[in-house]
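User
New here, explain this?
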Amino acid sequence: MARIDGIFKMVLQEGASDLHMVTGAPPMLRVQGEIRPVEYDELTAELAGALLNEIMSPEQRAELEREGDVDFAYEVPGVVRLRCNIFRQSNGIAACFRLLPTTIPSLAELGLPPELLRFTEFEKGIVVITGTTGSGKSSTLAAMIHEINTTRRMHILTIEDPIEYVHRSRLSLINQREVGGNTRSFPRALRGALREDPDIILVGEMRDLETISLALTAAETGHLVFATLHTPGAHQTVDRIIDSFPAEKQEQVRTSLSESLRAVVAQKLIPRAAGKGRVPAVEILVCTRPISALIRDGKTFQIPSMMQVGKKDGMRRMDDDIVRLIREGVITAAAGYRVAGQKNLIAPLLEREKRDSGGASKNVETVKAAGG
């Protein structure tokens, strides 16, 4: 057993989502979105190097030396699985570990709306899950793939960097490919996927133009594609995809995307009012005919207002969902205010929360200042 496994077990017991190890500081945990130190000695360059080298293969050590960073997955059998990023920084070696459950959660267990189940029933097209780093995109995708795996007879091919959730074939046949280990790159794996008879393709991250282009091609040619992007909201995701292409190709891409896009799900994780865990606030864009027309005609700036009137189609806006979570008592108004885009929607709820708790108006201004 590697010496660092004991630290991983402690992190799991603390209910943390991430572990940070940096030369010159004690290990730090991210608990409910906040960084906290643990009771451990300050990491020297020698100690950090010894702990981290134990869990890397010779190939991974060589990549770290060559590139300055390396990504991989690591498992403490029967305890926890982790996504690992080890990198060089000014003081020496450092690492970030994301804890992954050993069992795959359902959409309901993640607190996600039942509308997402409908997206697992599409026959073709592309569904994009978006949000900032640490917003739960990988867990959402894993839950959706698990739903398909247990309800439909499909061939599912995943391309990930690294593999985070391990799926076992049930009704569906699942092949998981890891970039760096099983394939050289996302584009190469996607080109190969089109010759491997998949029904469903999961693209762990659309990080470059070639990957985005191939994912759209797969969606156009009769596959159901699930993919992620790092964008804050649904309509920004549409713009990001289109803007990835050269100007002379964007009209063609708008037409292609208007026909192949099925849905965009944006999410943010917000600390629960009860103080344990976080809950997702979700924005859903469904590509109805009116939305498709806006994409095709280059009028994506009108998408938010169209989402407002598209609730009957399952659409919801992020700030409306934050308001809902506050009114249901799931999150505090202060927590919602910090992450909301339209803070004026949350401000009256924040004022009421402070009055009800007997807080001074000065504290309200402090929260508002912190929220931007």
Remarks:
- The chain has 15 helices and 13 strands.
- The radius of gyration is 22 Å.
- The chain has a mean pLDDT of 92.
